[in-house]
């Protein structure tokens, strides 16, 4: 009979699974020839997700091409530094786990809400909205640091049911962004009734050109994601964007529709670093509250990514020290990165999937990807090239990403069980979050700060409602049957 110690010991991989070589050891000494292609694979899987949130926020804030390039640069730089700190810890900061950090789509609805509130109040200063986002991010990063410091105490408030509800709501709130970009980005055109001159908006918004390119992009992503394997599957979003970009380029060259412009690429430099304070910092209480809530939620969500990484690549669960260090590191990197224009970051699930698939955990593979990101972030011409991607291409590619976020939430909710109690937690929370924010002026009778915090982001309301309902709804409802249509009821049997 095996001892308990032997049961918990990871199985050797000499005969089963990958060979016990350097690539499958965190501190293994692998050659550059081994490391480079695997690091490139992680870079390809992450880079689109890293730069796209910056492009979306830059467009909402009416940035100049130069500032859009700078925001993309800092997205790459902060992602690279965050990854390096995770694999090469500094004091207690860092998980010492094989993970890739990147700018997270999960924060996008909150950032859009913060920017939207600022622009509504200051229509002549849309660019300054980024300073409010970055100011709130500093407090959010500090909140994440505290969560990492007290992870044991905070974790109980965010079981899979609550976290899944929040992620599900995030996915739902992102769909309008994807569709707006598929239609061309910006807003519908507004013309002067007398002269017919364009007053505002995108003249090509909703045109067949945009929808055709978005559809082609999406179909390519679907094909490579569901009908191929290996590198092509992992790079499905990148390949989809390449196909959509090529079609947009053909439309531009043939004069069908001017969608691609290289004007700003030629004027961009070969090397630059964005100085601290370039985008400014503003502290708005309502924005800070919203961002703090999101950082706490995503800090707890990171536990799932760290756990998947260690289970899939190391045959064990993460230690409390690894979880604490990983979350604290992300918080500090986000707070410091905000000073330079770096947007909120998080662990990248797609790269966790690569670790689970390949079981390659050598830290130099992840260091290679991080250094490549860092170099790309310091080259304005590279970042400027990314700004030439039409918004319809981004919309077609990100629709599948947002759908994946939604389904991740549903999977987490389902893992908690389909009881009457859980239906109540999820249904009421999502209904409140989506419902209140869908009705303009629903909180108009409250003080302005209430409307700013709760009336602009469905994620904030859904998060708070899910936490409260999960705490107050009686546990015995876990055994209650779930009401069906009419008078029929069906009891979900306990799993054996």
Task: Please describe the structure with a list of short key phrases separated by commas or semicolons.
single chain; 496 residues; mainly alpha; two-stranded antiparallel ribbon; 6 strands; globular; disordered N terminus
Describe it for me?
- This protein has 496 residues and is mostly helical.
- Helices cover 64% and strands 3% of the residues.
- The chain has helices at 4-8, 32-60, 65-87, 108-121, 129-149, 151-155, 160-182, 208-227, 230-234, 236-253, 263-267, 285-314, 320-338, 349-358, 363-377, 380-386, 391-415, 420-438, 448-454, 458-472; strands at residues 101-103, 190-191, 198-200, 345-347, 482-483, 489-490.
- Strands 1-4 form a two-stranded antiparallel ribbon. Strands 2-3 form a two-stranded antiparallel ribbon. A two-stranded antiparallel ribbon has the order 5-6.
- A hairpin with a 6-residue loop joins β2 and β3.
- α2 (32-60) crosses α3, α4 packs antiparallel against α5 and α10 (236-253) runs antiparallel to α17 (391-415).
- It is globular and about 65 Å long.
- The two termini are 26 Å apart.
**Spatial strand arrangement across the major sheet:** 1-4
Strand content: under 5%
Overall pLDDT, averaged?
79
Name the structural class.
mainly alpha
**Cα Rg:** 23 Å
Task: Please state the overall shape, judged from the principal axes of the Cα atoms.
Answer: globular
Number of strands: 6
The level of helicity is 55-70%
Low-confidence stretches: 1-20, 485-496
